Amino acid sequence: MELLKKLTEAFGPSGNEDEIAEVIIGEIKNYVDQIRRDRLGNVIAIKKGKGIGKIMVSAHMDQIGVMVTSIDKNGFLRFTDIGYVSPYTSVSQTVVFKNGVEGIVSREEKKEIKDVKLGDMYIDIGASSKEEALQRVNIGDFGVFKSNFVVNGDRISTGALDDRVGCYAAIEAAKRLKETHADVYFVFTVQEESYLSGAATSAYAIEPDCAIVIDVTDTGDTPNCHPMALKLGEGAAIKIMDRGMISHPKVKNFLIDIAKNHNIKYQLEVLEGGATDGAEIHVSRAGVPTGAISIPTRYIHSPQEMVDIKDVNGAIELLVKALEEYRGF
């Protein structure tokens, strides 16, 4: 639990992942044979197997955030989103910039909340003039939403679970892996929330024989939500399809067989909106058979997301068994 808290509290909006990268390197370096950051900033940790191919595990380490676009004469900051940020969940939230400066997100009162867009919003850092504001922040500065790490029984809520919980699962899997047939490439990617850049370049360089993406997914268990056959606490999800890819049938069936053979509770996921690193990985070079293990998450892309630790532990167990038993297709 402490590791997950540490990961979610690290600063790392898309395109500014240095701090979270250092945290991940510190946590995984003693459990892998090689580790490096590539030119784009991805963390690539390799655990050597018996040399029967290469399998890539991808979890993105960036989080959604905001960027200052302009400052008016009264010191109010206009901003844009980095990754999708909803104006409705942002109102009255606190934004924290990399240097520690905090501000409150608010909106112009000329519009009803249902009509508000990010262009109608601003961040108030308590400055009374543009000159004063510029002493604290500048154009292009990155910020993230402030959150609290809350544990209620098996349920954990905090910000940046998308996808620090996937990073947590990959790190824990690396710690538990004893012996594998294939070389395992644990890749913690940059810029998934913005352009899927890290997945594209790392997959191209590694040229894996297979890939498994670890990311969050929506649920269908809150009042009057969009129908979806996923619930918190009912197990990790094995992806069938999302807006970025249809999981390769061999990878999907392999994961289902692993779950059944080891009595690991699982759900099947069809995500009608959203995509993962898999969208770029599966079409890299001549193509990579790609699937995904997803962690059901409520309130994705909000300052307080929620997961069930049973689903997280199930995802880790499924990933470990899959990596141990993978021998190519």
Automatic annotation (TrEMBL):
It holds the Pfam family Peptidase_M42. Its cofactor is a divalent metal cation. Keywords: Aminopeptidase, Hydrolase, Metal-binding, Protease. Binds 2 divalent metal cations per subunit. GO terms for biological process: proteolysis. It comes from the Bacteria. SUPFAM superfamilies: Aminopeptidase/glucanase lid domain (SSF101821), Zn-dependent exopeptidases (SSF53187). The active site is at 192 (proton acceptor). Zn(2+) 1 binds at residues 60, 162, 215. Belongs to the peptidase M42 family. This is Endoglucanase.
